[in-house]
Amino acid sequence: MTAKPQPGDVSGSGGPVEARAAAAAIAQECLATRARRLDRTLTRLYNDALRPYGVTSTQLALLVGLSLQEPVRPGVLGRGVGLEKSTVSRNVGRMIDSGWVTEIDGQDGRSKLLRLTDAGSTLVSRAYKGWRSAQERAKTVLSQGTAESLARLDAGLGADS
Amino acid sequence: MTAKPQPGDVSGSGGPVEARAAAAAIAQECLATRARRLDRTLTRLYNDALRPYGVTSTQLALLVGLSLQEPVRPGVLGRGVGLEKSTVSRNVGRMIDSGWVTEIDGQDGRSKLLRLTDAGSTLVSRAYKGWRSAQERAKTVLSQGTAESLARLDAGLGADS
DNA sequence: GGGTTATAGTTGTAACTACAACTACCATCC
DNA sequence: GGATGGTAGTTGTAGTTACAACTATAACCC
Whole-prediction pTM value? Predict the structure, then answer.
C-alpha cells in the first residue's frame, strides 16, 4: 500500500500545497535567515552609534584589523574577517580616499602592504566611545546569555570558511 | 598620586597606543563583527546552493514569508523579517520583474497587497531541495550545538528591532 | 471643511558584498 | 628560457541594505 503524504512531506512536483509546506519548513529552521536578520539588526545599531564619527561598522572592523596587523596585505586582512578579495579591494579604496589608510609596495611585485595613517589611528581611538555604547546596547537587545552564544558560533567558523 | 594607566585603559587622546588598545578590545568583543562574519559565511553557502534555481537567499526568504502570509502588505512582510521598508520596496521590485510576485491595490488607497504568482510558488517548491542541502552543510560548518545557539539568539530579537 | 499630523510606499544616494573575468606577476618545469 | 600554472589584486556587473527626502493618502482635530 502507498503511504499517504505526511505533514512536512514536500517532495511533490510544485503545486501551491507543496510550496506552503516547503515555506513552513524553511521559515522555522533556516539558519541563514536568522543570521541575516541578526546581522541587519546589529549592523543598524552599531552604524547608528558610529555615525557621529563618520565611520561604518564595516570600516571600523577593517581599521581594527589593520591596527593590529599592520603592515598587512589586503588578502590577509580580508581572510581574517571573512571578506572576499574584491570586497576588500573596494572597501580599502574607500578608506584610502578618506585618508585613513595608505598602501605601499610589497617586495613581491604583485602584492601591496596596507598601513593606517595617523588620521586612521586617531579615528579608531575616537570611535571607540561610540563602539562601546553600541556594544552595551547590543548586549541589552540580545537577551541574557546570547552574546556568549554568538561568540561560540563565531568560534565555530574555521579560517577556511 | 595619579593612577598609572591600566591595560585596557583606552581613554587617552588618540595616539597610536590608544588606538591599538581600542582595536584589541573591539577585535576581542565586538558582537557586530561576529554577526557580520557569520552572516557572510552562511549567505555565501546558501547562495551557492540556490544559484542553480536562479534565486538568492534574500529572495527566497521573502518568497517564503509571502507564501505563508499572502496576500500581505509590503510593510508587514518587511517587519516580519526585519527589513527596512525601502529595502523591501526594491527587493519586491526585482521579484515582480522576475515574475514571481504581483501587486494588487489594497482597500486603503496608499497601501498595496502582494501575492505569489504560480511561477513564484513553483520556485519555492523547487528551490526547497537546494535549501535543504545548504541547511545540511550549514549545520556541519557550525560546530555541534551552535545551530541552536543561533536559534536562541534570533528568538531574543523582539518584533520591534 | 480645512489645517495638521500620521501612515504607506517610492526614489535619490551611497555603502556593502560577491562572482566572473581580467591584468600583472611569480614559480616551476621541461 | 619559454610555456604553464598559480597567486595577488582590480574591474564589470549586479544584488542587498539603509537613511533621507519625497509623494500620496488617511486620520484627526478644531
Answer: 0.84
